[in-house]
Design a protein that fits this description.
Length: about 130
C-alpha cells in the first residue's frame, strides 16, 4: 500500500476499485459504478468521484455484496496482498459471502448425477428436470 503525496487525498472510485482488485479492468469498474452497483457512504456515485480514507463502500458484484471501509489509497495496481491492505471488509459482509458460497455449493451438489460415471437415460432426465 504505497501512496504518493499527490494521491494521498483521494482517488477516482473506478480506479480505486480496479487497484483494490474488485474488478479485472477499470472499464468494468466504471460500468459498475455507472450502473449503480457501487455506493459510497450510502449514495450512488459517478466514476469520477473521489474516494478518501474512511469512506464506506458497498460493491455489488455478481450475486455477492461487499461492504468495505477504505483504509488506504493505492499508488498502483499491485499484487493482491497490497490490494487487501487498502480496505477492511465488515464482519456482516464476510458472513453473507460465506453463506452465499455455501448455498451455491449445495445447489451445485443438487445438479450432480445420482450415479457415478457417464449418466444413463434416466439420470439425464433427472438432471434436466432439476435444471428447469
Amino acid at each position: 500500500m504505497a501512496s504518493s503525496p499527490e494521491q494521498s487525498e483521494g482517488l477516482r472510485i473506478d480506479r480505486w476499485l480496479w487497484c483494490a482488485r474488485f474488478f479485472k479492468t477499470r472499464s468494468l469498474a466504471a460500468d459498475a459504478v455507472k450502473g449503480g452497483h457501487v455506493r459510497v457512504n450510502g449514495q450512488r456515485a459517478k466514476p469520477a468521484r473521489e474516494v478518501r480514507i474512511g469512506d464506506t463502500l458497498v460493491v455489488d458484484r455478481d450475486d455477492v455484496e461487499y461492504e468495505v471501509a477504505v483504509t488506504g489509497i493505492p499508488a498502483r495496481r499491485g499484487p493482491a496482498v497490497e490490494a487487501r491492505q487498502c480496505y477492511v471488509e465488515s464482519e456482516a459482509s464476510v458472513e453473507r459471502r460465506q453463506k452465499a458460497a455455501e448455498q451455491r455449493a449445495i445447489a451445485r451438489e443438487a445438479l450432480r448425477p445420482p450415479t457415478p460415471g457417464r449418466p444413463d437415460k434416466r439420470t439425464r432426465r433427472l438432471i434436466r428436470s432439476k435444471r428447469q
